[in-house]
Structures are given as C-alpha cells and as structure tokens.
Write a structure and sequence with these properties.
The protein is mainly alpha-helical and about 170 residues long. About 80% of the residues lie in helices and about 0% in strands. It is built from eight helices and no strands. Helix 2 packs antiparallel against helix 8 (about 145-170). About 25% of the residues are buried.
C-alpha cells in the first residue's frame, strides 16, 4: 500500500473515533506547536487510562491515535512498535497494581516494618516514571532527527485535515 492511500485510510479511521472539534484542536496544536505538543495535548484531552489489559487499552481513543501514528511511522522511522509498546505499558501497570496491593497489606499488618512500605512506595514511583517514559519515548526519539520529525508532522497534518473533512462530511 502506498503512502497516499494509507493516509486516506487512516484519516477515515480517525474520523470514526475522534469528533471534529477534537480533530480541529489536535490539528491546531500540531500546526502551531509541533508533534510532541499535539501528543501531550491528546494525552490531556482524549479518553484513556493505563490498564494491565492490552486489548482494553486498544479501545481507548488515545491509544487508537497512537496506533494511527505507528502506521504512519512505518513510512519514516520504523521505530514505533504499537503492540510492543502497549504490552510494556500493560506489564508495568500490572506491576504497579501488585505493589499497591502489597502496600495495602503492609498497612493492615502493623507488625510490618515501615521500611518495607517505603521501599515499595519508591518502587511504585520508579515504575510509574518508567511507564510514563514509555508513553513519550517515541516522540522523544522522533525529535532527534529533524527531517523525520518534519516528515511526521507533515503526515499527521495531512491525516488530521482529511479526518476533519471526513467528520464534517458525515455531519452531526
């Protein structure tokens, strides 16, 4: 499949799960502030939350957007393995859940030392930081190569513009 037909396909896909107001805002942030700003804006405004279930995350709007970005990436960096990324995030989320459960147990058992609880809380901070880095790693890597960053920005602009046209054509 050539790039242009992939852009058409992805733009239609985006219009199916992101409403036209959000598409306009994403496009505005992308055009004015760049790819990373668009991603941070999407993380703030679109529906999502971490889960230990990869399939559950794939259904969330932000991760659907990330899936579209990973499809575009195949034409530039070839570094965003969407499924691997979600799997790593799910594994980290599962580890966090286990640690949080262990801390609750420690709080119940007053005989346990405070030090164990503090160690687990520190581990939670580290895993949370690692999980957050996983979410942004691709965009940090993309920024290291200006040509690829500008190419991705151009691709995303095209996809968002076409998605906006699709959304408007569908009407309310």
């Amino acid at each position: 499949m050539n790039l242009e037909s992939k852009i058409y396909e992805l733009s239609f896909e985006l219009s199916e799960f992101i409403d036209k107001n959000d598409l306009q805002k994403l496009l505005g942030v992308l055009a004015n502030d760049g790819v990373y700003a668009m991603w941070v804006y999407a993380m703030d405004k679109l529906d999502w939350k971490f889960s230990d279930n990869v399939n559950k995350m794939k259904k969330m709007v932000l991760f659907k957007l990330l899936s579209v970005i990973s499809e575009l990436d195949k034409y530039s960096l070839k570094k965003l393995d969407f499924d691997k990324c979600l799997k790593e995030i799910a594994d980290l989320t599962q580890r966090l859940s286990i640690l949080e459960g262990e801390i609750k147990e420690l709080q119940k058992e007053k005989n346990k030392e405070k030090e164990q609880k503090e160690q687990k809380e520190e581990e939670i901070k580290n895993i949370t930081k690692e999980r957050n880095q996983k979410m942004n790693q691709y965009f940090q890597n993309l920024a290291k190569d200006l040509n690829k960053l500008l190419f991705m920005k151009e691709l995303l602009e095209k996809v968002l513009i076409y998605a906006l046209y699709h959304a408007k054509a569908k009407g309310d």
